[in-house]
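FW: tagging you since you asked about this chain on Friday. Here's the raw sequence from the shared folder, copied in full. Didn't touch anything.
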Amino acid sequence: MRDRFRSWREGLTASAGFRRWAAHFPLTRPFARRRARALFDLCAGFVYSQVLLAAVRLDLFERLRHGPVEQRVLAAQMDLSPEAAERLLRAAASLDLVALRGDGRWALGKLGAAMIDNPGIPAMVEHHAMLYADLADPVAMLRRPRGGNALSGYWAYTGAEAPGALGRDRTAEYSALMAASQPMVADEVIAAHDFGAYRCLLDIGGGSGAFLAAVAAASPQLRLMLFDLPPVAELGAERFQRLGLSGRASTHGGDFTRDPLPKGADLISLVRVLHDHDDDVVMALLRRVRQALPPGGRVLIAEPMSGTTGAEPAGDAYFGFYLLAMGRGRPRHPDELAAMLTAAGFARPRLLPTHTPLLARVLVADVTQA
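HL: got it, structure written out here
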């Protein structure tokens, strides 16, 4: 019945005559306007993102962090003509990035304020220039074999025959990006899961250790292990040294698609790892994680997932095409991941609630007692 109703409703919407009537009839006019706005936003979304990119590159939010500033001052600081500065500011205001005060000065808007002291967001905004270049011809990207894009070159391990042989020159940049954006995800995971019941956490594909460092601060009793490609693991060791964590944190270099996983952890985390890989790699990795865990151990998966209520475009549209440009992987629904966990030998896969599911959902599964 629901599908028939949807077919009838969208059939009406497809009629130009009905759309004209709905735009004029008082009871349907608000719905017609919302649909028109939504469709326009789809067309104009790239322009909106470029307004944000310009604001980031011109340090607009940092210039406003200490209070309202006059437009002429901002224009001079950004090295823009008065006309260009006004155009940028009014565009940013329409997106809630900045706001015009009653005295004519400009201040942070609701979304612009969220950019302050949140380095992961401007880092990702800058990073997306590469993705947009790859998406300049989306049909061509859909038709050609995966890889061979700017984004797949950036994530060097996606196309490397021997990822473990990559040097720091090929891994440092993306490791820094992941570290900058990791705190937002770490906050979600730490709020969702109790780490206090475990002795040792192994973070697979843990980058330079940003997630483990956050968990370490929240769970001082927990021992920590990091596993990533050798040059990335070296960055993790340097982070642990700086933070005074070397006594309770160890790093292990290797390629989790082919090298043995270290033993000794009763909790293993995969944070923003699985959706970067194809099904055969994910299935093999989950089986090896199961083998590395003792009875009573647990695996924790944290990443954006397909089908998240209220964030559907982030899963299948954004990550679907981002991972296509990256060269491998796909967004997965929690039910798909749960089925893969069960096939790998885990029990009771289940979602834990997170404050911001758009950023990450958390799925855990257990190793049953012998």
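FW: Residues 169 and 231 are 9 Å apart (CA to CA).
HL: agreed, and The two ends are 48 Å apart (CA to CA).
FW: great, closing this out.
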